[in-house]
Amino acid sequence: MVLMAFFQPAKSAVEPMPFWKSSPFHQAWSNRDGAPSDASAMLQDRTGMLWFGAVNGLFRFDGVRFERMDDIAGHRLLSPNVYSLALFGDALWVGYEHGGISVFDRGTVRHYREAEGVPPSAISRFGKTSDGTMWFSSASGIYWLDGARWRQVSPADGLPAGDQPHLNILHDGSLLVTHLTGVYRNLPGTHRFRRVSDFGSMQPSQLLADGKVLIFRFGMPPRLYDPTTDSVTVPTLPATVATPYSVHRDRRNAWWIGQGDGLHLYSPGLQLKRQFLAPHDFSAVRVYRPPLEDREGNLWFITENGVDRIRETRLLPQDMPAGSTDFSIMPGPDGEVWISSHSSKDPISPPTFATAADGRRIASDMYSATAGARAPDGTLWFGDPHWLWRRRDGKVRLWPYPPRLQDQATQALAVAADGSLWVSIAQRGVYTFNNGVWDAGGGHAALAERTALSLHSDAQERLWFGYTNNRMAMLQHGKIQQFDSSDGLTVGNVLAMFSRRGTLWVGGDQGLAYFHRGRFVAIKDSSGRPFSGVSGLVQTAQGELWMHCSDGLVRIDAAQLAAARNGADKVSVQHFDYLDGYTGAAQQLRPLNTLIEADDGRLWYATSSSVGLIDPRQISRNRVAPTPLVTWLHTDRQRYRAANGIELPRHTQNLHIDFTAAVLSIPERARFRTRLIGQDHEWRDAGGLRQTFYTNLGPGHYRFEVMAANEDGVWSDAPASLSFYIAPAFYQTMWFKLLCASMLAGGLYLLYLRRLEQMTARAIERLRTRIDERERIARTLHDTFLQSVLSLSLRFHSIKADLPKDDAVQQKIDDALDAADAVVEEGREELMELRVNHLYRDDLASALRTFGDNAALPYGVECLLEEEGARRQLQVHVQEELFPIAKEAISNALRHSGTKVLVVKLCYGATMFSMEVRDQGKGLDDTVRKTGRRERHWGITGMRERAARINAKLAIHSTPGVGTSVVVTLPGRLAYE
After folding, report:
1. Which CATH architecture has domain 839-977?
2. Which residues pair with 530 in a beta bridge?
3. CATH code that applies to domain 628-732
4. What local confidence, expressed as pLDDT, does residue 193 receive?
């Protein structure tokens, strides 16, 4: 049996609500939709999900999909035949048809079977008294939990055995049992009972919101038990209700009575308000069980054929005479709304009437008016195919149309600022009417030529004419101005106009626009699409714009409207369609206007088959924030029920995740947004979809999050999440990546070394080529040039010997011989430069020692060579530059310093090589110290140039009277081979 009484919903769900509108929205689900058949229990959990227990299993419902639950958190049910459900805290209690109880609590399960004292009969209801004792009722009796074992209440405790008792927990926490022999109530804190009524029943009783209990017995009127007085009375029911199958009073104080033909809705005063008759308005003829009221205010019924829901709608359709269609509406005084239609059942009876603000109907003698207008003084004008009607101060007067206008539909009416009535007649054009006088076009030939689809008079004393194909005209002070698409008018056929606060709004079958500075400006919805089939417009006093479009009403709030007037061409809107109680379709030819505002501020709309209203100041809102849930994770190979910490196998790249939220009123308008932390950088809008897909995911840790919003845009307080891990393949692990990176780096380094080796070999080859060339040149100088000069000198000596000693030519020959000796000496020095590589090809130190000793000998100077560190082989091109630098430094010291000791020092450091030439002489003079060179001498400059060619640094340090040192340093990687 149903167990709603024991599930305590959120506080918002138990607050009183206004009475139902006259047309609650009904929807049924059968087994074709996945719903359980002949369910026996239902409840709503803390997330808002509905649970159903039935003979074919346990089901969970989010408003869209019924999901059969074979297990909960991985724990299987004892049986698929579920008979009762209850929720206490976080624990879900499940009772089975053939005995047995399961308690699912935060990922754990506890089963009770016969061994624990549970009888092998249906568990019908659970309860928990104020002292914390758990109870259940079954066909064999009432049981309470004593530790880990269930014990039956015996006749000795004051309760007869058997006869299918049913229990209820009263508001004071005590237990009430209905039994075939009477009604029993336990003594507080005990397992003993006393009988409080002789009215017995085998049917389940119902705990009402006020704490009273309705007790049913087939074939007899129900009884009402009052726990405060222990009294049992017969409630007053409508005369037509003798023996109901079920009675329920909801928190709107409405009565729902199940009879043999379906379900009946009664007011608090028991006036019949609505019938839901099977099979068209309800799924079953008999309604045995009272409904569940969810936290959003909807009613849920379980029947033998499925599940039924009844919910509130935002639009309030009005009851119209049977057979009426093609409705027209017009506001009257004091909140009246005049409604006219065509009647297919009774074409003779006048089908035009008014509905007063209090709901009364006001009859009239008018027939099927297709157009109407209201003058500023309250006068009402109506037009049908034959007559023009005027209603003023409760009196009606009519004029026949002229013969030429007879039998043609009245398309539109408008009262101009001067009080004249403008009439548009189908296929006849536009006329004015003044005291029985008709004037085509009001005296304007351009207006008499075409029938206006719509007419409108605004506060600026302008009269507007709407035509087909993006055409309009405006009459002001006797002047006519025409408008078309070149003026921005793109609404198609102009079906509706409305003005307020100086703004004219125009609607047509292809869009919406407003008039601004002589042009029309189009407005589209947030997706960039034009509004379709706009045949009614109203701007309310609150600044909202309402449209009647081809598929329902559309609301643009004041802020969006202000943005549109400030240049925005797209606006966000709110739709009211069939989900809100809208039926039929907006007229696209006549009658027009299809949306009006009554004097009391309510909006009325007319469709091809219905008339309804909505109060824009009192639009019902669903303020219950949905609770999102992640339900399933699917890979290409397996499905996983959502649970944090799922580890997916290696090579998993593609997956999709199912999620949902219980939005039970209008689940079609639920919205979701998702993100996958580890993949997504921001939230993704999922719209109404309840699953999302991911591809090409890599290994690692991920957390999926989802947020949900209901039909009114109320978002969940916090996201639901699911964390999972994708195991890496061996080639996706960090150590493998590091290994690959190391191998790549090693390979690149080997390539670098190979390249360096190749470049070094080529450089050495080029150097060897240069050295060989220099040796060839040196041999040529020695064997040809110098020998030739020496031979020439010998010939001059021979010539000098043959001349007289006092001959003046001898002096000239001596000068030539001195010049030849200088040439030979210079040639020898150049030869030394060319062949010096022989000295240091394998050892710079030995070359410097040899050169130093030879150079210092004529000066009587001691030349010392010092070495620091293990000697290392220097690169050939480095030696080629270092030796001339050292030679120049040694020569300068010998010639200019006056030193007695000269030191040449070579340091072979691990990262740095240095060469120093140091004397103990008089130091450099001031000119050399400041300029770095001697006038007309380039030795020091040459040393610096040679150092730069090998990327070395040359420094000269000199102290007067102490000495001078020349130091060359360069990195070891550049110096050593």
Report:
1. 2-Layer Sandwich (3.30)
2. 524
3. 2.60.40.10
4. 94
